[in-house]
Amino acid sequence: MGYCQYINIYIKIYINLYIFYIYKLIRYVAMIVYNKLWETLKRKKISQYKLIKTYHISTGQLDRLRKNENVSTYTLNQLCEILDCELSDIAEYIRNSDSKNIE
């Protein structure tokens, strides 16, 4: 086996270990989910259309909320004011060990 083959094997092993390490880190990441937002909107009888047209919440922000992605505290504050609710009525912190509750 030549020197280049040893290097290639070493690189493959290193990459696999790196991917495994990243996977382990991701497994323990906690997240904030916005499932309660949709329930609160329904309870307050405010549609997503009304959020967009009347309250000028962008479709991009709503898309990020639907996907449980990062949104600004400004947006969360606006939603709390519009819905006259607490942050806990629209967002919830879930540890990754509880990830089965996300969907």
Task: Describe the overall structure.
- This protein has 103 residues and is mainly α.
- The chain has a domain at 31-96: lambda repressor-like DNA-binding domains (434 Repressor (Amino-terminal Domain)).
- The chain contains five helices and two strands, in the order H-E-H-H-H-H-E.
- It has helices spanning 3-27, 35-44, 48-53, 59-66, 73-83; strands at 31-33, 92-94.
- The radius of gyration is 21 Å and the shape is elongated.
- The chain starts with a helix and ends in a 9-residue tail after the last strand.
- The mean pLDDT is 83.
Short description:
The longest helix is centred in the first third of the chain and has 25 residues, at 3-27.
What keywords describe this structure?
103 residues; mainly alpha; 434 Repressor (Amino-terminal Domain); two-stranded antiparallel sheet; 2 strands; elongated
Distance between the termini: 50 Å
Helical fraction: 55-70%
Shape: elongated
> CATH topology of the domain at 31-96, which one?
434 Repressor (Amino-terminal Domain)
**CATH architecture classification name of the domain at 31-96:** Orthogonal Bundle
Mean pLDDT: 83
Helix-strand pattern, N to C?
A: HEHHHHE
The major sheet is characterized as: 2 strands, antiparallel
Query: What top-tier CATH class of the domain at 31-96 fits best?
Result: Mainly Alpha
Strand content: 5-15%
Going across the biggest sheet, name each strand in turn: 1-2
CATH superfamily of the domain at 31-96: lambda repressor-like DNA-binding domains
Query: Over the alpha carbons, how many angstroms does the gyration radius reach?
Result: 21 Å
User: How many beta-strand runs?
Assistant: 2
- Uncertain residue segments: none
